[in-house]
């Protein structure tokens, strides 16, 4: 009897929720980047699920390379490397100059896992260059880095989990050189105040939309001179780290 009395109210609630779901879908269907089940397109604006889709490309190297190609990113596929049972990679690519990317890397021709490469391309187009143009009226011409592949555990540990660097699934960013000749360095400018510090904080926070893990000097002393970006595979709905 109680169930019978409550049934109309339950049906009304379900109808309202269903109506809201349809209304939300009607809004989001024109923004596929905000839906978890749509295919990733590097040419679309960053959406709610872009970062998770990028990280989920791990183990799907063919799909990842096809996305880079479709977006105009020039690259070469790197031969597989197996340094040990814990270290190595088989889906890495090396950036080539030209194409849709305007930023060079120093040392040149950075090689990373394909999901990291895809994240870096989006980071350049949607985060780094817009911030530089707005704050300095200049373009970023090159990014200085400390490398990607390194067969080691998480920094400072002699045991425990292996770093994403052990699979070329991370990159450490040290500095940015602009078209006006200026240089913005993590170690020098992170806490300096002014536009350079604002730029570094903005590209760090923007990177959190595209990478599974972003670590900066705000995280610990080991990251005082670089931004660590990786695509740790935690699934499309997995937890993310932004510090």
Automatic annotation (TrEMBL):
Quote the protein name from its UniProt record: Extensin-like C-terminal domain-containing protein
Organism phylogeny? Bacteria, Pseudomonadati, Pseudomonadota, Alphaproteobacteria, Sphingomonadales
Q: Which residues form the Extensin-like C-terminal domain?
A: 63-243
Source taxon at top rank: Bacteria
